[in-house]
Amino acid sequence: MTSAINVISLGAQQPVVLSASALAALQDAEVIIGAQHHFDWLADFKLSARQILFPSPFNALRVELEKYDSKRLVVLASGDALFYGVGDFLLRCVDRERLCFHANISAIQAAFHRVGLSWQDAIVQSLHGRPLETLKLNLQSGNKLGLFTDEASTPQAIAQLLCEEGFSDSQLWVCEALGKAEEVVGQYSASDLQTEKKTFHPLNICIVQCVGNNPALQRLPGLSDDAFATGREAGKGMISKREVRLAILALMQPRHNEIAWDVGAGCGSVSIEWARQNPSGQIYAIENNSERMEYLTQNNQRFGTRLNVTPIEATAPQGCDNLPVPDVVFIGGSGGELDSLLGYCWQKLQSGGKLIASAVTEGSEKVLLDFVAKHNDCEGEVVKLQVSKTANLASAGELTELKPVTLIKVVKSQQALH
To answer: What is the CATH number of the domain that holds 81?
Structure first.
């Protein structure tokens, strides 16, 4: 008979403080699964249950849960199990109805209380096991950040990145070994902390009050063209210009957890803007030109989007065969194969998915309009953009006309699967 699993968060305080329900579940357990330090923290509780250490690799925990599914089972968690903890893993492999969660204070909550800052408006980000440059996604003056760290995202490394990106006046609090006897909380400016020689406790939380400005990291879509590496003069080369890019993003409408393809991605400007607006989504940037791929890779790191932009150096459609089924596809470059690419992407697209494509030549525009005519029973739209602009206010009367761009959007309905 399958039994319930009690998931007990141990909080950020030692000695451990548990609710009455958590304590009752712990004392009633037949099997307890956790890390060695969890059992060390609970040494005074005189547990009678069998103690099992988390397996390595951690994914094997699923097997352990199945092995003891007829037992009264407890899983232990540091801090808060449902906040960057084991709870997320359990919810993916066990029926929610079997899980009973016992709350406790998270390390982030404890850190803000130690520092004395409200945290209802804070942005909490984990840098644990993630590229440090993903921090750039949240660098805006006035932002309050709570950061989980690891050996690569040390307080000094965080401070150095802040200084490099124009946020050297930011204030940082480093909260070391929260709840333990060796707990220390220190406050620094980013400019001072980047050269700090101190070795911090490996278990630390950083709180950042952002002060500074970097227009290249603006949160709203519409990054400046010259912020992207293209291998040519700033703002030139194989890049969807800002005004066109904004229209493309409006048609793509990034949504939580979506899978997207950017076919003919060039330097990656559309992929990167989409990813910055949808950090929970995944976009695959397909590009067959190795030079453009190099700039795409540079831009991906520059804007901190490596977690959810995956560059694919390949020629479409062959390079798309093994990619996850997309919710949205943008075709920006086709190498003269626009007609076949539209058909291929349409076939791969999820029901309810969105296909967006652009054309700058009369021939490619005709292909797009023919495709629209074939699917005129679907929801969608056609947009033609003619942009004239100058960055030189002294010559505002002499605007430069960009090439007209035609954009289509077609939504794949249940009735239009082929």
So the answer is: 3.40.1010.10
Do residues 305 and 298 make contact, with C-beta atoms less than 8 angstroms apart? Answer: no
| Joined tokens for residue 417 | 């699967």
At 389 the pLDDT is: 85
- Is the pTM here over 0.85, yes or no? yes
Q: Residue 104: its pLDDT value, please? A: 96
Q: Domain boundary at 83, 105, 127, which?
A: 105
Residue 9 CA to residue 147 CA, distance in Å, equals 20
Quote the DSSP letter at residue 404: P
For residues 377 and 379, what is the distance between their CA atoms, to the nearest angstrom?
7
Closest of 118, 200, 111, 93 to residue 154, by C-alpha? 200
Same domain, 100 and 129: no
Residue 9, classed as helix, strand or coil, is strand
Side chain identity, residue 409: K
State the pLDDT at residue 416.
52
Range of the domain at 68: 5-105
| Buried b or exposed e, range 103-128, using 16+ CB within 10 angstroms | bbbbbbbbbbebbeeebeebebbbbe
Planar angle of CA 360, 311, 274, nearest 5 degrees? 60
Query: Does residue 280 register a pLDDT over 90?
Result: yes
- The whole-number average pLDDT for the span 9-14 is 92
Which of 215, 241, 258 is the last residue in one of the domains?
Answer: 215
Question: For the chain, how many structural domains are there in total?
Answer: 3
With vertex at residue 408, the alpha carbon angle to CA 316 and CA 265, rounded to the nearest 5 degrees, is 35
> Under 8 Å CB-to-CB from 209, ≥6 apart: which residues?
117, 144, 145, 170, 171, 172
Summarised one tens digit per residue, pLDDT across range 286-313 is 999 999 999 999 999 999 999 999 999 9
Indicate if 317 and 399 belong to the same structural domain: yes
Same domain, 235 and 325: yes
In which band, very low, low, confident or very high, does the pLDDT at 5 lie, cut at 50, 70 and 90?
very high
DSSP characters for 240-267?
--HHHHHHHHHHH---TT-EEEEET-TT
Gap between the Cα atoms of 259 and 326, Å rounded: 5
pLDDT in the model for residue 414? 65
| 311 burial via Cβ count (<10 Å: 0-12, 13-18, 19+) | buried
